[in-house]
Amino acid sequence: MILFLQSLISGILIGGVYALIGIGLTIIFGVMRVINFAHGDIMMVGMYMTYFLFTLFGIDPFVSVLITIPMMFIFGGIMQKLFINRILGSLPQNQILLTIGLGLIMSNSAMLAFTSDYKILTTSYSSSSYRLAGLSISKPLAISFLITVAITAILYWFLMRTDTGQAIRATAQDREAAQLMGINVKRMSVLAFGIGSAMAGTAGALISPTYYIFPQVGSAFTLKAFVITVLGGMGSIVGATLGGVIIGVVESMGAAYISSDWKDVVVFTIFLLVLLIKPSGLMGTSRT
Amino acid sequence: MLTINKLNFSYGDLKVLWDIDLQVNEGEIVTVVGANGAGKSTTLKNISHLVRPTSGTITFNGQNLHGLESHQVVERGIVQVPEGRKIFPEMTVLENLRMGSYIQSARKDREANVERVFGMFPRLKEREKQLGGTMSGGEQQMLAIARGLMANPKLLLMDEPSLGLSPLFVKIIFEIIQEINRQGVTILLVEQNVFQSLKIAHRAYVLETGRVVLSGTGADLLDDEHVKKAFLGM
């Protein structure tokens, strides 16, 4: 029972960060119908940013999200303006090639600048934990989970309640109708890519105290983000949140009850099962 | 108010519009009628800049619209109620209306305009919390028109508002169009329902395979032999 609860809690905590990555990818896909294969690499940029803010300026990783969020937002916005806006509406394979290419440029530039050595960001609390009724809860994971919840809540409020947020949703639901409402859809695309990048970068910042930092760290997370969003239903924010938590819990359970070598197998098995039963994803609506 | 001069447009190699000349004066209902594929919707898309004219000019109140983005055309006061209604399916009726008043100049009148369109369409008020995608075709068309009015349009472009609706709704929609016009909004209406739209129009244009073949007052065209034969089955 303790093992079960322990892995459930760990799974939910890491799932929160996964959700953040998934939400970023799903917003970008929702607004532009572009799958961002550079998503994990953008996260990697967030990790390095956090690492250097910590080692050079002594800024705590959880405080540095206040810097990482706006920086990554601008980074993503510029990427959208310079590159992605040019290929909206072109063939899907071109979009895939472009985002994969951007990802490769990011990871290889990181390798050139910082070598491929693993970096570890060690804070005073990196390996400390809270103890609660016989369970141990990792302190960095618990804090990052709380930050994730706060960011997700703010984002949700922004998308549901503000004019700009609603305009982003409108653009996602019907781009042409949005244009006819006087919405500048190119600007919404820049905002969406900025928000998506900020989410990915923040996820990177939040896991940096508990994860190795290296230039190729992104590819595994791109795949994970893709699984999360497809599982939740492409374009659905609630779905991505749910998908992230599910993947986190499944991974953690798989590692606890089978073996950590097999956790990805468990994840993909669950993924395939869900898609067999509901091909549009958990919260997805089938698109025509 | 709106002047279209020698408008040409092609989708790739396929030329769709040939030297369209069209004039809409302030306060009028002008209708463009024609068969499927005659280029009616394409003309509206050119005005809204969803597509760009190959050549020719579109001027609105003396200003050339050339080079403007779609959202800038809306800001000038030209609002389109698109074909197929294009309601935001996962937004409530009220959210759809809010999006209609997204442009800066319309936001200050948002609350008043919501009340105004609810007065015109009481059924929308009953359903203000319902998701747009779950409404019937007729209700969606009402919502699409109401959403268009939220932007305080000077010129309202309406693309096939009666398409696919029951006869009862068709009647309501044409009454609404006249009501909107009486409130001071100029209307450019594209319709396949030739009889109804010529009846309410001040002036009309007949489009055939991308060319204007006839124009005149609504009443004149209703009496025209060619129109009778081609569109009214008489």
Kindly describe this structure:
The complex is a heterodimer of chains A (288) and B (234). By secondary structure, chain A is mainly alpha-helical. Chain A has a single domain (2-277), classed as Orthogonal Bundle (ABC transporter involved in vitamin B12 uptake, BtuC), CATH 1.10.3470. Helices cover 75% and strands 3% of the residues of chain A. Chain A has 11 helices and 2 strands; from the N terminus they run ααααββααααααα. In chain A, strands 1-2 form a two-stranded antiparallel sheet. The longest helix of chain A has 31 residues, at 2-32. Chain A is globular. The mean pLDDT of chain A is 93. With 234 residues, chain B is an alpha/beta fold. Chain B folds into 2 domains: 2-77 and 153-232, 3-Layer(aba) Sandwich (Rossmann fold), CATH 3.40.50; 89-151, no CATH class. In chain B, the strands form 2 sheets. In chain B, strands 6-7-8-3-9-10 form a 6-stranded mixed β-sheet, sandwiched between helices. Chain B has a 4-stranded antiparallel β-sheet with strand order 2-1-4-5, covered by helices on one side. In chain B, strand 4 (55-60) and strand 5 form a beta hairpin. In chain B, helix 3 packs parallel to helix 7. The longest helix of chain B has 16 residues, at 167-182. The two termini of chain B are 34 Å apart. The model of chain B has no long low-confidence stretch (mean pLDDT 94). Chain A binds chain B through residues 163, 166-167, 169-170, 173-174, 176-186, and chain B through 48, 50, 69-71, 74-75, 79-80, 82, 86-91, 95, 98-100, 102-103, 107, 147, 151.
Topology:
The complex is a heterodimer of chains A (about 290) and B (about 230).
Chain A: H1 2-32, H2 39-57, H3 61-87, H4 92-114, E1 129-132, E2 135-138, H5 139-161, H6 163-173, H7 175-180, H8 185-207, H9 217-232, H10 237-257, H11 263-277
Helix pairs in contact in A: 1-5, 1-6, 1-8, 1-9, 1-10, 2-3, 2-4, 2-8, 2-9, 3-8, 5-6, 6-8, 9-10, 10-11
Chain B: E1 2-11, E2 14-24, E3 29-34, H1 40-47, E4 55-60, E5 63-64, H2 70-75, E6 78-81, H3 93-100, H4 104-107, H5 110-120, H6 122-126, H7 137-149, E7 155-159, H8 167-182, E8 186-191, H9 194-200, E9 203-208, E10 211-217, H10 218-223, H11 225-232
Parallel strand pairs in B: 3-8, 3-9, 6-7, 7-8
Antiparallel strand pairs in B: 1-2, 1-4, 4-5, 9-10
